[in-house]
Each structure stands twice: as structure tokens, then as C-alpha cells.
Write a structure and sequence with these properties.
Helix content: 55-70%
Oligomer: single chain
Strand content: under 5%
Radius of gyration: 23 Å
Shape: elongated
Largest sheet: 2 strands, antiparallel
Distance between the termini: 41 Å
Order of helices and strands: EHHHHHHHHHEHH
Strand order of the largest sheet: 1-2
Number of helices: 11
Structural class: mainly alpha
Number of strands: 2
Amino acid sequence: MLPSPEAVPPSRLLRFDRVERAAHWVTALLVLVLIATGTILYIPALSIAVGRRLLIEDIHVYSGIAVFVPVALAVAGPWGKRLRRDLASMNRFTAGELDWVRSLGRRGRESVSKFNPGQKLNTFGIAAFLTMLLITGLILRWGNFISVSWRTGATFVHDWFAIFLSAVILGHVVMAVSHPQALRSMIGGWVTSDWAKRHAPTWLSDTASRKKPRRPRQPDKALR
């Protein structure tokens, strides 16, 4: 017996729309600029080899301020409906997802939705690191009125958080390259239903249920 049409999941699922992809790639570019310019400023040999230290510093500072702009613009209007929904879903962890975290992905796979718990934690980590880097960076650039001890502490925190951020970004890139279809979804937007069945089964079932056609409303029977 053939399954009903509404029970068959679509062969392709839209994972990221154009707004989400644009926000991701512009943010990624700004983060790479931050890492590159920060490395030049941090390593004296590179700073001497490149030269134009003041220009590199300006690029670094203003890229750090601008890094939050793409996501802010993406969620600001009606065009950001999907991104707002995705960000909201990242704030929730189900019992199955917590089991996934405790078992390092060995259990709870059936409860994974559009983003697995590792991706959620990665997003939180990057956002937290960037926020702390922005605060300490503003202190270092325009905090001359702040005490020397606070500025020294800000320098220490800024340097170490930059190292942590670079490590997290490297891990993110490695995971993206090792999952080519997930990476392609951030380029073209789509994944196959087979991929979703393996990696995001809850999201697949939720998407299929949302796509079920509504039954036409039956006209009310005339009163006799």
C-alpha cells in the first residue's frame, strides 16, 4: 500500500534562506578580518612585516564593532522571520538534547532538531566571545579615563578570549568541512530529506507536519 502524499517528506528541505546565508557569510568575513588583523597586531614580527599598524588597528576596531550588524539587520524586519525562529529554537534544550550533550552525541540523536546541541553551544560560545571582545576592545581603544589596572585586565581578557574564539572558529570550520551537505546548505540553502533523517530527524518530522495540506472545511449542514 502506497503512503499518502502528505506522509512523504519532500526530497529537499530549505534549511537557510537568503537572509540567513547573507548574515552568516558577512559575519564570517568580519570575524576572519578580526582574527587576521588581531594576529598582525599581536605578533611583533608580523606587525613589522606588514607595517601600517595604525591602519590595521583601525580595521580591527571597526570590524569588531560591525561584526554584530549583519545579524541585527537580518532580524530587524519581516525578512528575518526564519532567522528569528532559528535563534529562538537555539534557546531551548529538550531532555533528549541534554542527553545528547552528556553522552557527547552517542545518545539522543532521535531528538535532534534543525540544530544539534553542539551547534547551539557553538553559537552561544561565539556570541559570548565576540561580546566580551567588543567590551574589552572598546576599553582598550577609548578607555583612557579608566584606571591602568582595569585596562591591564582588559588587555589580558581580550587576548585570551581572542585565542579561545580562534580555536572555536577553527573547530567550526573543521566540522563544516567534514559535513559537506551541511556546508552546502549554508551556500545553496537546501539539504536532502535523507540528510535530515540522519542528522535532524525531529526537524524533518516537524517540517513534514507543517507541509501537510489542510482539509477543506466542511460546509455547515442546514438546519432542518
